[in-house]
Amino acid sequence: MQVDGGAGPCSIDSDCVEGICEAARCVEAQCSDHGACDGDERCFEGRCVDRVTAIWGFRLERRYPDGLADHRSEALGMSMGYGFGGALVDADGDGDLDVYLTSRIPTAAGVSPPCLYENHSSPGSLSFRPRAGACQALEPEASIPLSALAFDLRQDGSHELMVLGTGLSLSLQDGERVHRLHDLLAPDDPRRACTPGAALATDLDFDGLLDLAVGCQANLSIGSPTSPAMKNLFFRQTADGFALMGDFAQEPMADGGSTLGLAERDLNDDGLPDLLVINDTGTLHGSRNQNLPGYVLYRCDPRQDCLYTRTYFAAGDDAWGSLMGVGSLQLEGRGEHLVMTDQGSKRLIDMSQSPPVDRASDYGIALPRSGAHILYSWGVVVDDFDRDGLDDVLISQGAVPEAVAGSWTAHYDALMLQRRASDFVVLSEEIGLSAHDGLDAADQDSVYAPRAMLKADLDRDGYLDLVQLALGGVPRIYAEVPLADGRPPRCTLIPKPRVIPAFGAGVGLAEGESETFHYREIQGQLRAGMSPWLISAFGQGRIRFPSGFVVPFDCEGGVGPVVVEEPDWLGIERSADGLLITAREQTGPLEVLFEGEDTLRSVAQEGPGRWRLAEDPGLRRVMLRWSERWLPRWFD
Q1: Would you tell me how many other CB atoms lie within 10 Å of the CB of residue 351?
Q2: Handedness of CA 431, 433, 434, 440 (dihedral sign)
Q3: Residue range 621-632, pLDDT digits in tens
Q4: For 192, left (φ over 0), alpha (ψ -120 to 50), or beta?
Q5: Which residues contact 561 (CB under 8 A, 6 or more apart)?
Q6: How many angstroms separate the CA atoms of 272 and 306, rounded?
Q7: Listed residue (233, 237, 235, 238) closest to 256, CA to CA
Q8: What is this structure's pTM?
Q9: Are the beta carbons of 66 and 484 closer than 8 angstroms?
Q10: Rounded-to-integer distance, Cα 51 and Cα 332, Å
Q11: How far apart (Å, rounded) are the C-alpha atoms in residues 450 and 469?
Q12: pLDDT per residue over 412-465, tens digit each?
C-alpha cells in the first residue's frame, strides 16, 4: 500500500513522511515490531529479515539513525583528549530515553551544536529528531557543555537534565526554572576554573533528597594537584534549590586529582553508600608521580567523627595510573570486582581484600598493548551480553592526541565474555564492533578514537543499543542483533525507590532464581551520564533497593518498561511514649541511633513487624540499623 511520501519520489526511508521507501515509492512498513514477522525473522527498519545465529551468543550491527548519527564534534577542541559527552534522559516524559550530546567549539564550521535528540524510535528502527529550541548554536563567549546526566529532583519519575560546562557552568533544567549551581560560588572563587567531566546523583547527607557530586578534570592550563580548580565539588539539595556542602570541602573529599569518573557502590554491604573516585594521574599503571590516584571513599559509621575514609585501589605504586572508567562485575566464585579502564593494563579489582587484589591478568583481560602500542581504554559497560547468567564487560579503547603513528589504528574496542571457571573470551570485530579507521572520524586526516559508551534499549525492541562517544567525529551507534535461538527479549526496568533516593546507582538486580544482586549501573563515567534504568536479560527476578528492601518483578515475556516500585513498608511514629517502628518483611535485631549520639539503642520487638523504644530524647533525627546494616537516612 502506498502511503504519504511527501513531495516527489523517495530514495531513502527518511524521505517518507510515513512508511518505508521501496522502488522510489513510499509504502507501508512490513512490520512495526519483531512479533509482526515470522518466527525465524526479525523487524529491521520496517522490513522483515532473517534472524541469524552467532557462535558467541551475541552480535552487534551498526545503525545510522537520522539526527543522532550525524552529530559531529571537532577533532580535539579544548580540555585535552577527553572527547565529547552526553547523557540518556527521558526529557519529554514519554517513557523512552532521549539522547543529549555535547559539542565543544561553538564557531567551528561543520560542527554540531550541543543538542537534545528526542527519541522517535519504533521496535527495530532507531529514529531521533533534534528538539526544537534545544540545539542552538553557541555564542562565542558562551559556556561550552562538556558533560551531562539525568536527574530526578523530586523522585517522582520525571527527569531533569543537568549540563556541566566550562566557566564553571552547572545548570539543571527544572521545568521553566533553571538551577545554576555555579552561582553558589563567588565570581572570584578559584574553584570556578573546574573542568567538570564527571557527576553523580546521590544522597550525600542522608536527608532523603538527591544531591550532586562533580568531578573536576585537568585541562591544558591547570594540572597542579594543589590547584583549587582540581578539587571536586559537592552540592546539597534544599527545599528551594541547592547549596554548597562546606563539610565536604576538606580531606579526604576535597580531591586534588584529575577525576574522570564518579560512581557509587556499597562495597562492604553495611548499607552506607561508598563513593568511587576515578582519577587519572597521567601515568602508566604503577608509575608514581605527584598526582592523586583513584580510590574508594568508604562512608564512616554515623557514630564516628568523620564522613569518609580513603582506600586506594591498589597498594604502593600500583595505585597510580590513568583511570578513566569503572564498572561493577560479579566474577564467578569470587564475588564483586571493579573493572577499571586505564592507560596500559586494565584492572579487575577485588576491594574485599586488604590490600585490594587485581585479577585482570589472571583472567586474561588486562590487555595492556596492541603490538608495540600501549592501549588507552575509556568507557565501561557491564551486562550479561550473551545471557548465560554471567557478567561480561565491553570497553572502548582509543588513542590520545599525542599518540605515535600506528597507535590510532592499533586500538580496538573489546567485548570480554566471562566463561564459567575460566578466563574471559576477548572479541572485537568478530561480534560486530567496528575497526578504528577514518570512518566516523572528525575529518579526513583523523582516525576514530572512542571514549565513553552509553547503554539502553532505545527502540524498545527488547535488545541492547549502544551509543559510543569519541574524541571527535560522530557517535557510533550499535544495536544488538536478535538471534535465532528462541530466547525471549530483554526487559527494561524503571526502579522507583521510596525510602532511600536513588537514580542511576544503588539499585541491585538479581536475575531469575539467582541470589546474587548485580550493580551494573553505577553511573558517572567519563563525560557521560549513564541510564537511570535497568535492563534484565531474563525478564524475571528481583530488585534490591538502597534501603535493602527486595521487590520481585516479572515482565511476562515483554520488553517493558516495567515500573518496579518500592512499597510503603516502613513507618516511624513518635509520641510521649517513645518510638514505634513498623516494618514489613524485616527480621533480626533493630537498633536506633539518635543524631548527635555515639551509642546505639536496642529496640524491643513487640510483635511481627513492630518494634518499640520506650524513650525519645528530644526532637533529634534518628537512623535505623537492622542486623548491622544501616538504613542510610536521618528520619525526623
Answers
A1: 21
A2: positive
A3: 999 999 999 999
A4: alpha
A5: 95, 96, 460, 492, 493, 494, 533
A6: 13
A7: 233
A8: 0.94
A9: no
A10: 31
A11: 6
A12: 999 999 998 778 999 999 999 999 999 999 888 889 999 999 999 999 999 999
